[in-house]
Structures are given as structure tokens and as C-alpha cells.
């Protein structure tokens, strides 16, 4: 069997089930009805020739990626292309807040744009500035990630560690709470190779969320972990499920469940792994399970390998992305899908351009090392900006007009009596979606 047959096997076998659930889920959970009423300022009769055009300008749902390579390339042309391409398809950016890189020496913080460079760790101020410029929502990754601790914390007592974390939370809150809506509080706490004494205490996660609630009372708080998409994890006895269940009993709040979706496995294992990670029924089963906790869900980190830059492998990567994005987007609990690396050759644990090392070997980017677009980039751009996009023109009747569209921001244009009237409008999942326009 070809790689296409094995990688896409379950997508193909379950195409009728998937089409039904994807189509109905997107229609039910990602779209709403807008009701527009027109009035004249003086109460006189309305003109008969009112036409409304609605053009969607952004999604309420978040489609993102990490922004670790912002101004990090080896030349300015690549930096320019990255800035341009990122904003073409994404409305959310994961900003690196790794403690080891933000405070490599105690008290010497790397928040400012002028901070010393660290590869794949652009300064948060730079990232936030770019996001504001492009209308992209920044997201913090991560407040308390024990695997990336600064060396100067090595061996400290649990109490000392907590004191330093409180200082870190407070500093980040004072500088970024107004600009960054969402914060991942903990990350990958199911692992066993973390560095600190505090990590092995029973209250590591609970304490972190209590402190996050104290210093980020108006921000969304997210828990994040990996290795949850495998057969033995499809029950409420999985450690991550039980961790969140306990957390909800013991802390003021958790706002969203982060689920990593990296397919970091060798090509030789793909046929076996596809039975779970590229299997629509099983993806829905796991999302349905975690939805019972009453929280929203995010795909916080995603990598779909191409394994090479061959035409066939890049095609398969794009088709897998079409499948999993459609499935995730259609689920009522999902609120965001965040791809990981935009460009091949700049992933973790490898020198730039070395495609045989680290995470580079998976060829998991949406663009090639030379910054050209892969089919995956073009596919996502089509989904976000065309297939999952609303553009409607309707004529008003009896002073009313309506349209059904994807949740998000819109530019409305009213054409009446030879005039055009521009109006901003937001169609929201939790809004009444009614608007009165005075002519």
C-alpha cells in the first residue's frame, strides 16, 4: 500500500460519517443568524431600495501558530516574508514566555524589544507589538513550565521556588495582562523529567492556578498537555482527565483544556498511529469525553509531518490537515486550533536548515525552508479565508434584512438612494446578533 493509502485510510473509510458530523457541526456551532433592522432618523417611510452587503473580516474562532521565528531568520527578506505570511492566515499567535530564556540571569529580564537575541525566543514586547499591528491575538506560553527553568533556580527549596514564581507572575501580569487575553498556566505536567523539587509536590498544578487566578483575574487560564490521543486514554481514568477533574474541585477556575497534537513519530510508525490520530471517530470520541468536564478545548500545538519535500508527501500533509482541521473546527467544545511551526527548518532541537535533526526531520511546517508556500499553507488559507468565510448580499424587505454567517467581525455596507453607509458589526456565538441602522 502507498503512504497515501495508509495515512489517509481512516479519513477515507469514514468519509460519510465525517462529512455528516463535520458539516452539521460547522453549521450548528460556527455560524449564526444576523438580524438587521433599518429606521429613518426622522421616522419617515423607508426607501424601498435598501441593499445590505456583509463581508467577514475576521473569525471568532482562533486559528493560530507559534510566533517563535518573528525577526529570528538569518536575513531580512525571510523576516519580511514571515511577517507577511503569518498574518495572511492566523488570528492568534503563541508567544514564548519560557522562564529560562526570559530571565537567564536573575533580575535580567528579556521582555523589551531591545533585549539580547535568543534563537526561537523573540522578546514578548516585539511579539505583542506585531500582533497589535496585524490584529492578531497574542497568547502566553507558559507561566509555569518546569522543564524550562533558569539555571539560577537549580536546587532551591520549594518555598523559595514559589516566591520566585509569585514574582514572575506579578511581573508578567503588570506588563501583559491588558494585552494578552489568554495564559497557559501549566504545561506538560504528566512528564517525569522536570527539574525542580516543587514539581514533585502534590500541589504544583493547583498552586499554579490559584496564583494565576490572583494575578490574572480577567484573563483566560489554560492547562496544557500532550500524549492524550492514544487508545488507553479514551476514558475518564486517564491521568490528564483526572488531573483536570481534581483541579476543578480545588481551584477557583480553569477556562480551557489544552491538547497538544504533535505527530512526532517515525514514518515507519505512521500506518499504526493513523488508527488513532488520523481516525475521525476516535478524535471525536476524545473531544466528546473531555467536553463532559464543562470546559472549552484548544488544540494548543499541532504538527502534521510531511517527512520530505516530495510532491506526494506534501500533498498527504495537506490532506491530513484538511481532515483534522475540519474535525476540530466542527466540535462544539473547540475554540482554537494552533499549528506549531510555520516554516520548515526552524523547529526545536536542530540547527537552522538541518532537515535531518530534531523536529526539523518531520518536515512539519506549512512553508518550505526557502519560504515558499507548501500545499498545506494554501489549503489552510483557503479554508480560513474562503470556505469558512461569509460574504453575503441581501435586499431588505419591510425594513429588515438577515443573513447567516460564520461568527466573527464584519464590514457591512448599506446601499440606499445612491448612497453607501459603512457599518462595523460582530456576529458572536454569545451575542443576540441584532443591529439597528439609522438611515
What would you note in describing this structure?
- The protein is an alpha/beta fold.
- It has a single domain (62-376), classed as TIM Barrel (Alpha-Beta Barrel).
- Helices cover 34% and strands 24% of the residues.
- It has 13 helices and 15 strands.
- An eight-stranded parallel beta barrel has the order 3-4-5-6-7-8-9-10, surrounded by five helices. Strands 11-2-13-14 form a four-stranded antiparallel sheet, with no helix packed on it. A three-stranded mixed sheet has the order 12-1-15.
- β9, α12 (311-330) and β10 form a beta-alpha-beta unit.
- α3 packs across α12 (311-330) and α12 runs parallel beside α13 (375-387).
- The longest helix is centred in the last third of the chain and has 20 residues, at 311-330.
- The protein is globular.
Our count of domains comes out at 1
**Major sheet: order of its strands?**
3-4-5-6-7-8-9-10
Write the CATH architecture name.
Alpha-Beta Barrel
Largest sheet: 8 strands, parallel, barrel
- Which regions contain 5 or more consecutive residues with pLDDT less than 50? none
Broad structural category: alpha/beta
Give a topology summary.
Blueprint (H helix, E strand, L loop, with lengths): L2 H5 L1 H5 L1 H15 L1 E9 L11 E9 L2 E5 L9 H14 L2 E5 L2 H4 L21 H11 L2 E8 L13 H19 L5 E6 L16 H12 L4 E6 L13 H12 L5 E7 L7 H8 L2 H12 L4 E8 L7 H20 L3 E6 L35 H13 L3 E5 L4 E7 L1 E9 L2 E9 L6 E5 L1
Helix pairs in contact: 3-12, 12-13
